[in-house]
Each structure stands twice: as C-alpha cells, then as structure tokens.
Amino acid sequence: MKIDEISTPELRGGQNDLHSQLCSQIESSIKDIEKHVPGTALPDSFSTDLRRSISQLNSLSPYPNSVKLHIWKLSYRLWNACVDLSNAAGFKTWGHKIDEEHAKLRQVSADLLFLACDVSGIPSPAIKSASFFYKTGLIWHDLRKFEHANYCFEKATDLLSKVEISTISENEEKRFLLDLNIARSRTAWEVSDRNLAVALLSRSKSMLFAVAENYKALANQYLTFGKAILSKNEVSGVNEALRLMNDALELCERGLTVVKRTEDTLALKELRSKTLRFLAAVHLQRDEFESVLKCVKVLRNGEKDQHPSLSVLAMKAWLGLRRFGEAEKELRGMVVDKGIPEGVWVSAVESYFQVVGAAGAATVKGVFLGLLGRCHVSAGAAIRVVSKVLGDPAGAGEEARLRAKVVSDLVSDDRILTLLSGEDTSKERTAMHALLWNCAAEHFRSKDFQTSAEIFEKSLLYSPSDIESRNLRAKGFRVLCLCYMAVSQLDRAQEYINEAEKLEPNIASTFLKFKIYLQKNEPDGAISQLQAMPSRLDFTTEFLSLAAHEAIVCRCHPVTVASLSLLLNFYPTGKQMPTTEVVVFRTLVTTLSQGPQNDSDILKQMKRAHTRLSELGADKFFGKGEIGRRERNWFSVNAWNSGVKTGQEDQHALSAEFFRLASEFYGASIDEEKEGNHVMVCKSLIMTVSAIISDERQRKSTLLENEVKEAISLLDRAGKMLMSSSTEYDKLEAIIEPKLLFMYTWCAFDLYSRLDDTGSQQLLLIKRFANSKCCNPNHLLQIGIDASQGPRSNHEVATFALSTCLSILLASSSPDYESVALILRKLVCLRSIHGADSNDDATMETYKQAYRIMVGLKEGEYPVEEAKWLAMTAWNRAAIPVRMGNMDEAKRWMSMGLELAKKVPGMQTYRSCMEDFVAGF
Prior knowledge:
Number of strands: 0
Shape: rod-shaped
Strand content: under 5%
Mean pLDDT: 82
Low-confidence stretches: 1-13, 92-97
Structural class: mainly alpha
Number of helices: 45
C-alpha cells in the first residue's frame, strides 16, 4: 500500500500505525540503497521516494519519542549508507550525475534527522543535526550548487542559534561553530555577496575560544579572500584586499599571544609571514614601495629561512623607487642564494629587465650566466630570459639593437649551448630558434641588416642538424645571404647561398646566386644561373621575369637580353606566364636598342615577334582595342626607325629586312578593323625595295631573277593597296611624299629594266610619273641619266625623261642652265648613238634648240664649257659628210657650229678659223 493512499488515521488503526508504516517504507528504501552496487549511478527514485515519505511523515508531527528515536536511527543509517557508497566508489571517480544524487540522499538524511532533532535521551541533538546539514552543505558547495549549500548552512545556523554557547564544552563542537560560519561565508563569497561573507568572518571572531587552530583557520580565510580579490587585478579591489589581509595579520598576531604549543606557534608564524608577503604584494600593486620594503625588512628580521619571493619583492620596490643599484644588488644576491627556485629568479630577471630596459641587458646576461654556473637551470628558463631580453619583437632603434647584441652574446655562450643540446630539450631548441628568427626578421624588416644577420647566424646554432631539418637550415642560409647582399658583402653572401644550395638546390638559391653575380658585375655567371633555373623542380617563369627586372635595374644589358630571351621560350608551351608576350618582346627590343651594334640582334628578335604574330594573330599577340593598337604601332615604328638607321649607316641588307617587318606590323589589323596603316605599309614596301637595290649596288652584285620578281611583287603590292588603275598617281600623290613617289617610280623602272619585254612598261611608268603633280625635274633628270647609261639603258625612256625635264626647266622663271646644259649634252649623245641617219634632223634640232636657248643670255649665264662642247661637236659632225662628199650636209653642220661659237665667249680664235675655213670651202 502506498502512503498517499492513506486518507485518515482512523481508517488504518490510528496515527501510531501510520508512523510505523512510513518508517517501514523509509527503511525499505534505505535497504535498497545499502544493496546498491558502488560505482554505478544512483537512480532518481531513491531520493524521490524518500522525499515523498519524509513529506508525509512531516505532516504527522508531533511524534512520540519512540518514533523520534526510530527516525534518528533511520537518518544515521541512511547517512552511513551514503558514506559507505562514497568510500567504496570515491567521489573523484563519479560523474556529475552520481555526485548530485549522492548529495540529494545526504540532504534527505539531514532533513530526516531534523524531524527528530528534539529527541530525548541523545546528547546535543541540535548540534548533531546541524553537523549533518553542515556536511551536506559542503558537498553542495563542492558541486557549486550554492543555493542548496546556503540552505543547509542556514539550517545548521538556525539549529545552533538555539544552543547556548556557554553550554558547549568540547573543542570539536567549538570548532564546528567556527567552521560553519566560515563555510557559510565562503558560499556567500561565491554568489558575490561580499558584504555578507566579510560580516560572517567578523562574526566568527567571537568564536575563536583562544584556540590556535581557530585563529589560523579564520586568518587563512581572510587571506584567501584577499588573494582572490588581488588576483582579479581590479584597481577598486586593492584597498579591500589590503583590509582583509590586515585582518588576517591581526588575527595571526592575536593568536600568537594566546597559543602555548610550539607547533601552533610555528604554524601561526608561517601564516603571518605568508600574509606579510601578500601585504607586500598589495603595497607593490599600489606603488607603495616604502611599505613593501618595510614588510620585507620585518620578514627578513623574523625568519631564518627567508622565502624566495622576498628578494623579488625588494628588487621590485627598489625599481619602483628608481634605485637601480639596490635593485641590481638584490638581483645578484639571488645568484648566491641556492635556495631560490628557478621560477622565482627567472621572474625577477624579467621584472628587472622590464623596468631597466636595454640599459640592464648586460646585467641580466651576467646574472643569468652566473646562475648557470651555480645551479642547474632548465632550458625553459633560458627561453624565458632570452624572450624577456629581446622584448617586443617589433621594436626598432638603438635600444632594440642593444638588446639584440646582448642576446647574441648570451645565446652563443657555451653554457647555453650545452644546456639546450640534449635530446630532451628539442622543444626548447625549437623555441629558441623561433625567438631568434623572429627577432632577426624584425630587424630585417626595419632594414637593420647587420643586426639581422648576426641574430640569424645565432639562430642557426639552434637549428637541428638532422636530415628532416635540411630545409630549415637552407632557409636560414638564404636569409643570411639576403642580409649580406643588403650590406654589399657579396663574397660572404655567396658563401651562404652556396651552403644553402648544397642542402636544398631549389629555385630560390639559384635566383639569389644570380643576383649576387649580377651585383658583382659578372654577367657570364649571372647568365649561367639563368640557364640553370628551368632545371629546378620548383621553377616558375616568374623567376625569369624577376631576373629580367633585376638586370634592368642593374643596367646589365647582356643579362637582361638573356633572361628575356629565355622567358620567351616558354610562351609557346602554354604555361602560366607573369606578363604578356608582347611586353617581353618590347622590353627585349628596347634593351637591345640601348647597346651599340645590336641591329642584327634586334632584327632577330623582331622577326621572332613577327613569327609569333603570325601564329597567334594580331588580337592575341598585341591585345585588343586601344592597347593592341598601341603595341602594334610601337613595333611598327621601331621597325621603321631601325630601317632608317641602318640605311643611313649603309647597312642596306638589314635596312631592307627592317622595312619589310615594318610593312608586316603596320599591316596587322586589330579588333577586326577594316583599314590598317595602309599608307605606312606602302611606304615600308617602297623603302624595302629601295634598300634591296642599294644593297645590291653596295655589294657590287646582281640580283637573281627570282629576287627581282620578289622585289617587283612588293612594289605591286604597294601599288594595289593604294591606287586604282585609272588614277594611280593622283591617289598616290595625295597620301605619300613626292620623294617616296619618285623612289617608287625609280625602283620600278630599275627592276623592270632587268626583265625582258618590259620597255613599254618602263616608258608608261615614267610618263605617268612625269604627268603627276609632284613630278620634280631633278627626279626626271636622274631617271633620264640612269636610263641613258649602263647595260640596261633605255634610250626611249631616257629621251622622254630628259626632254620632259628640259621643258619643265625652260618653263621656269629662272631656269637652272647647268641642268639644261647637261640635258642637252645627254640628248645629243643619245640621238647620236641611237639616231643613225634618220635622226640627224632630230640631232640638229637639239643643237638648234641649244642655240635658241643661248640667244639673249648674258655672257657666262649658260655654262661656257658646255657651250664650247656644243660648238665643237656640231663643227666636227661635218667631217663625215665631207668625206662622203655630201657638201650640203657638211656645210649645214659647219654653219651650226659657227653660229654656236659666236655665242660662246673665249672662242674668237676658233671662230676666225671656222670662218676662214667656210670661206675657202
């Protein structure tokens, strides 16, 4: 039957039977608990069933004394069962759930005992019940269930409040009163009720009963609270911590006046010393350095075995007073005192250096090395000291250099090296290497390369020498190479990079060797490193691009050319490239242009660029839009300018190649443009053919027939691009200079003269040129002279060109009679050679024309020598008709010669002879 089914006591045989029944149920639950296997989870049903039974039992109070005794026994039985379970399994091995269920059972036991706390026949039942609540509260406190703990402590306090303190005679019960107050104070502290916690400690001062342990316990709790406030580093809490520690010190002093046993005295003195040390720490935090020194003085006077922290406290106080000499004495005194733990003096060294800074670096080094000589120092301590001496890794300036110098001396000391050389200090060696590396890296970033190199070298002392660490050591050597390159110690930099390459032959080492050769102005060595780069496993084309930039900065043109040429080899492979191919070509050509006598190399690279242009197309090679047009124009203009330059230097073969490339570059279309630079293409083609002919004459050789045809095709291509069949020269005149038009005509004439059956084409070509608006008499004169001589002469072209030129000259307001005389001589010669008898009249007409020209001229205006030549040749032409008996013809020529002689000054004697001969003829 369940208890909650009972309605009234009368229905079940009275209230006593109900008490017995509830007690039986409680006892049954306790038996189940006693049978529970230790170490397994306690089910919730135990505490739930017991709590229900106690609630029903509580509603049936008051109880007869016999029932109270029974409840009392059941409570103790439950308590003991809980103790047995905890002893068997151990709280530490239980999980949180098991602990909480256990605490609930303890709580049930305390509540059950509370129902019978006024039982007769048992001494001090209230104190015993209160102890159950106290112990249960401690368990709840440990579980951080502070509400339950506070409930238990308050229950215990209420029970003890009904007991007169004067009736308590046993020390254990007196101590229980104090412990309860302290426990309740601790719980209040945990829930941040500091006022209540301190008030409960103050109330506990009346419960000391002149017992040394009580004084010690209460003073220790004051100290604990003070330390807790101090540990939070709250400025507002320092004063409160100081008050609590002063209370603790006062309790220690009072306790020492009442204690009698030696061991109690020693315990209180030890607590007092501890309190004084913490008081000194509080004063130090408040910058009350004089008070710190007073506390230290009291402690040193009262203790034979001084605590290690006293030297640290004293040193920090002296540092606070800026009395560095006394602080240094305290620091050096730690070296002598072998009882000071390692952690204490390391902390002291850190504190000293933090205040004194770089000025105390040498002292710290001396102290630390002294410590190494007197005792065993751990590797971790060395790391801490080095870290503190280095300070902020991002520091710079003179102080940072001084710190680095001290660290350099410190870490290179044999004692430090020995300390970190064991197999069990590998982590510390790694940490030391990292410290030194980071320090050196900061100095490197601040461009203090000398200091950086020194620290990097020291870091190598702590770099592992095993195979797995080869890369790390190689990295160190490479960084040292960079440092010494920065300070221009190139030989030393080369030594380090050679060592790095032995350990790790990668692209970085090769590139640094390249830079060293470049800075040493050894282009052959630099080029050899360039050629070695592609063989490295981690090679990327970015390194060739960087190498080119470095060479450009150093103005080392051979290396620049080599790096760019090598870089160009990778574009056809389809690899990811650092820049566009056209930029590389442009840079390469620009570099070659800056050196002397590089025209052949420039031509080679521009041909190479043209090949890539043909393979990729203009849009892909030059780029699209305005950028592509600018790139195309750059190559076109440079090819043109190179053609002009080489032509002026009489390198006509190169000039022809450059002009041909210019025509190809100008003709490239960007972004599907319909019209390119057709004018420049035409000009380039004309200049190409002109350079070919000039080269032929320079070499004194003759073009082969296929070469002639190729040159003609180039001219035809120029004409077809810009002219129509009907108005060729009209169009041509509008777009190109007269000089180029003449060059086009002259080249075409020259080339046509080399082929059979092209005479009519030559004449048509010259006639069209003569009819053009830009026709120049000098150009016609040159064509006429060229056509009149040599194995490929054309007397028709020559006669036409010279005659046309003569007409143009005579039409001028101030004719050039030097040219007129030359033309007349050439015409006479041409007609004499090619005219035979049928053309004698034409020759005579030429002489007559010359005579008519000379008529009316001032003396000497017509070239005298040319006039004499005309007169003499005309007279001499009569010789053949005389011999042939053709007297009329002879007389005609003699008359012409005599008439011309009359116009020539200085021929009087000749003229008299001529007249006499004619008279006698």
